[in-house]
Amino acid sequence: MVSVVGTRMQLAALFWHIKELTDEPIALGMIGAARILPVIIFSLLGGAVADALNTAHHSYVIENNATGQLARLIKAETGYDVSGKILKFDGRPFTPAYIAKAIRKEER
After folding, report:
1. Alpha-carbon distance 107 to 83, whole Å?
2. How are the residues of the chain apportioned to helix, strand and coil, as percentages rounded to the nearest 5?
3. Which residue, 18, 17, 36, is CA-closest to 27?
4. Which uninterrupted H or E stretch holds 78?
5. pTM above threshold 0.90
6. What is the largest CA-CA distance in the chain?
């Protein structure tokens, strides 16, 4: 509840500031559009990603840490269980050859 009140206060201050700077109604509309467009765009992208994951035969999480936290987060938030995890924790970047070798090893 406190977060909602704070967000509304910030939005009111932003609108007031824009009105004082420009006194143009279109500027207020542009602020509203700039706030809602990312929500619309990312929800469409999220739907496309969900559709792709539902049709994928295998999915792998590739992480540069030892615990595989991203796979657990995906499972907790979406219920989707990944096929495998490729973990590396030596601090060096992944190479395509390393990933291909690890996927072949996972498939056995």
Report:
1. 10
2. 70, 5, 25
3. 18
4. helix 69-78
5. no
6. 66
**The token pair that represents 33 in the structure block:** 């559009």
Mean pLDDT score of the chain, rounded to an integer?
A: 87
Question: Which amino acid, residue 86?
Answer: I
C-alpha angle 76-82-88 in degrees, rounded to nearest 5: 100
Alpha-carbon distance 3 to 10, whole Å?
A: 10
Amino acid at 103: I
Q: How long is the chain?
A: 108
In the chain, where are the structural domains located? Answer: 1-55, 57-108
Q: Does residue 1 have a pLDDT over 80?
A: no
